[in-house]
C-alpha cells in the first residue's frame, strides 16, 4: 500500500511502481540518508518539535538499520520506491509511532538533495585521492627518466627533442588541474539544502545552521526553490570528471601507440596486458583502449544530465531522479579507470634506447641547427631557410644533420664551424632548453618537485 493511499482510490499499477522506483540505484546512498535523518531528528528535538525520547528512539532505530544493512542482515526491499521511503518504513516497522515523526518539516525533495550532495562530496574526495596517487606514480616514473631523450611531436610528426620525464609530467599538470576542478565543485555542492521542504520551506522553527554543522556543510542554501531543484553540482562534477577522462584518454591513446611495434617505446607488464584468442604473438593494451572507450560513457553522462535539466520548470520534477544513474556511472567509471591505470603505469617498462633511436631520425634538431646560425648573428628567417635546405640535402643523400661533413655544412653557409656538431647533439639540445617549464633535466626536476608539493597539500 502506497504511502499516499489516503488520497487515491486505486492501488498503484505494478508497472508504475517499477517504473517510478529508484531504489535499485539510490540504495547506495543509505548511509547518508541515515546520517541526514539522525541530524534532522536531533535538531527537531532541540527545537522542541519532537520529544527528546522520540528522538532517542529514532536515532537508535536508524543506527540499528545502518548496522543491519552493513552486516547484510537487512536487504533492500525492491517494492520500496526509493531509499528514503525504505529507511523510513523500516524505522517505523521497528520503533512504531516515533518513526512516523521523523519526516516532520522535511520532504523527500530536500532529503534527496541532501543525500546526493553528501554522497558526491565524499566521492569528490575519493576521486581526488586516486588522482593524487596516479600523479604520484607519474612523478616516480618521470624521476627515472629525466635524461631519457625522446622525440616530442606535433601533428604526430617528430618535432623537437624532449625527455620521457617531460612528457609524463605534462599529464601530471593536467591531473593537478583536474583535482582543482573537483575541489571547486565540491566547495559549491557543500551547502545544506535541508529545510527547503518540498519547495517552499516550512513553518516549523528549524535550526538549519545546526544541521549544517552536524553534517559538515559549509553553509545553508539561501533559496528553498533552488535548494531542491538544481543539480548544477552534478553537472559540474560530471564536467570535471569528463575532463579527467579526456586526459586519461589522450594518455591511453599514447600508450596504445607506444606499445605498437612501430614505436615500442614502452612495454606493459604482462599482468596489465591481454593476449589474443587466435594470434599467439599478440600482447594487447586492452586496458588503455577501454579507458579511451569509457571516456565516451562519461561524456554521455554529462550530456544526459544537462539535457535532463534544461527544460525543467522550478522546482522539483521527477525527471531529476535521472541524475543519479548518470552521475554515479560517471564517478564509478572514472574511479575504475584511474585505479587500473595506477598499477599499470607503475609497472610499465620504458625503452629508452627505442626513444633515443626515434629521436635520432626525423631531424628533430633542425631548429637547434637554425638557432646555431642565429647565435652567430644570422637573422632567424635566413637561418631557417639554410637549415631547410640542409634537411632536403640530407633526405636526398640519406644523411642526417649529425653525419653531414663540415664541408657540406660550409657549402650551405660559411658561418658553420666545427662546434655545430655539439649544438645539434640531441642531449645538448635537451639540456639547453632549461627555460622554466622546458625539458632540460633540471627544469623537469623542478616541475616534479612542484607537482609533488602540490599533491602533498591536496
Ligand atoms: N527518488 C526521488 C528522486 O530521486 C526522491 C524524491 C521524490 N520526490 C517526489 N516528490 N517524488 O528524485
TrEMBL record:
Enzyme class, spelled out: lyase
Pathway note: Amino-acid biosynthesis; L-arginine biosynthesis; L-arginine from L-ornithine and carbamoyl phosphate: step 3/3
Every Argininosuccinate lyase C-terminal domain range: 363-431
Keyword DNA damage: no
Any GO BP annotation: L-arginine biosynthetic process via ornithine
Domain Fumarate lyase N-terminal, first and last residues per copy: 6-300
Catalytically driven reaction(s): 2-(N(omega)-L-arginino)succinate = fumarate + L-arginine
Alphabetized SUPFAM superfamilies for the sequence: L-aspartase-like (SSF48557)
Pfam family of the protein (one): ASL_C2
Record-level GO cellular component terms: cytosol
Superkingdom as given in the UniProt entry: Bacteria
GO MF annotations in UniProt: argininosuccinate lyase activity
Record's keyword terms, sorted: Amino-acid biosynthesis, Arginine biosynthesis, Cytoplasm, Lyase
InterPro entries xrefs: Arg_succ_lyase_C (IPR029419), Argininosuccinate_lyase (IPR009049), Fumarase/histidase_N (IPR024083), Fumarate_lyase_CS (IPR020557), Fumarate_lyase_fam (IPR000362), Fumarate_lyase_N (IPR022761), L-Aspartase-like (IPR008948)
Subcellular location: Cytoplasm
Chief localisation class: cytoplasm
EC identifiers of the protein: 4.3.2.1
HAMAP family cross-referenced by the UniProt entry: Arg_succ_lyase
Similarity-based family: Belongs to the lyase 1 family. Argininosuccinate lyase subfamily.
Name of the protein this chain belongs to: Argininosuccinate lyase
Amino acid at each position: 500500500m502506497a504511502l499516499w493511499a489516503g488520497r487515491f482510490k486505486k492501488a498503484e499499477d505494478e508497472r508504475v511502481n517499477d517504473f517510478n522506483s529508484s531504489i535499485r540505484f539510490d540504495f547506495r546512498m543509505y548511509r547518508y540518508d541515515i546520517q541526514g535523518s539522525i541530524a534532522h531528528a536531533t535538531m527537531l528535538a532541540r527545537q522542541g518539535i519532537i520529544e527528546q525520547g522520540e528522538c532517542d528512539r529514532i536515532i537508535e532505530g536508524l543506527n540499528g538499520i545502518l548496522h543491519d544493512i552493513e552486516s547484510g542482515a537487512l536487504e533492500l526491499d525492491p517494492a520500496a520506491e526509493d531509499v528514503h521511503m525504505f529507511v523510513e518504513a523500516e524505522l517505523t516497522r521497528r520503533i512504531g509511532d516515533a518513526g512516523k515523526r521523523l519526516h516532520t518539516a522535511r520532504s523527500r525533495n530536500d532529503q534527496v538533495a541532501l543525500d546526493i550532495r553528501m554522497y558526491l562530496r565524499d566521492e569528490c574526495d575519493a576521486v581526488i585521492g586516486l588522482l593524487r596517487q596516479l600523479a604520484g606514480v607519474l612523478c616516480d616514473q618521470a624521476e627515472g627518466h629525466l635524461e631519457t631523450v625522446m622525440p616530442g611531436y606535433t601533428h604526430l610528426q617528430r618535432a623537437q627533442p624532449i625527455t620521457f620525464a617531460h612528457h609524463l609530467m605534462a599529464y601530471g599538470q593536467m591531473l593537478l588541474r583536474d583535482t582543482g576542478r573537483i575541489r571547486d565543485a565540491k566547495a559549491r555542492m557543500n551547502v545544506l539544502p535541508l529545510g527547503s521542504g518540498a519547495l517552499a520551506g516550512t513553518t516549523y522553527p528549524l535550526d538549519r545552521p545546526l544541521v549544517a554543522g552536524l553534517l559538515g556543510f559549509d553553509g545553508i542554501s539561501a533559496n528553498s526553490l533552488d535548494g531542491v531543484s538544481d543539480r548544477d553540482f552534478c553537472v559540474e562534477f560530471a564536467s570535471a570528471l569528463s575532463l579527467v577522462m579526456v586526459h586519461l584518454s589522450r594518455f591511453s591513446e599514447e600508450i596504445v601507440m607506444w606499445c605498437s611495434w612501430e614505436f615500442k617505446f614502452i612495454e606493459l607488464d604482462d599482468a596489465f596486458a591481454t593476449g589474443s584468442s587466435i594470434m599467439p604473438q599478440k600482447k594487447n593494451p586492452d586496458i588503455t583502449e577501454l579507458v579511451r572507450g569509457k571516456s565516451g560513457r562519461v561524456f554521455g553522462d554529462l550530456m544526459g544530465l544537462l539535457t535532463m535539466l534544461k527544460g525543467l520548470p522550478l522546482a522539483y520534477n521527477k525527471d531529476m531522479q535521472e541524475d543519479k544513474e548518470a552521475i554515479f556511472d560517471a564517478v564509478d567509471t572514472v574511479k575504475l579507470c584511474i585505479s587500473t591505470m595506477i598499477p599499470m603505469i607503475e609497472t610499465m617498462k620504458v625503452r629508452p634506447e627505442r626513444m633515443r633511436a626515434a629521436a635520432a631520425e626525423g631531424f628533430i634538431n633542425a631548429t637547434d641547427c637554425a638557432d646555431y646560425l642565429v647565435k652567430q648573428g644570422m637573422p632567424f628567417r635566413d637561418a631557417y631557410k639554410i637549415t631547410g635546405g640542409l634537411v632536403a640535402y640530407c633526405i636526398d643523400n640519406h644523411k642526417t644533420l649529425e653525419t653531414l661533413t663540415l664541408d657540406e655544412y660550409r657549402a650551405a653557409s660559411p658561418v658553420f664551424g666545427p662546434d655545430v656538431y655539439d649544438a645539434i647533439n640531441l642531449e645538448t639540445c635537451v639540456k639547453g632548453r632549461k627555460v622554466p617549464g622546458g625539458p632540460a633535466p633540471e627544469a623537469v626536476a623542478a616541475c616534479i618537485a612542484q607537482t609533488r608539493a602540490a599533491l602533498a597539500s591536496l
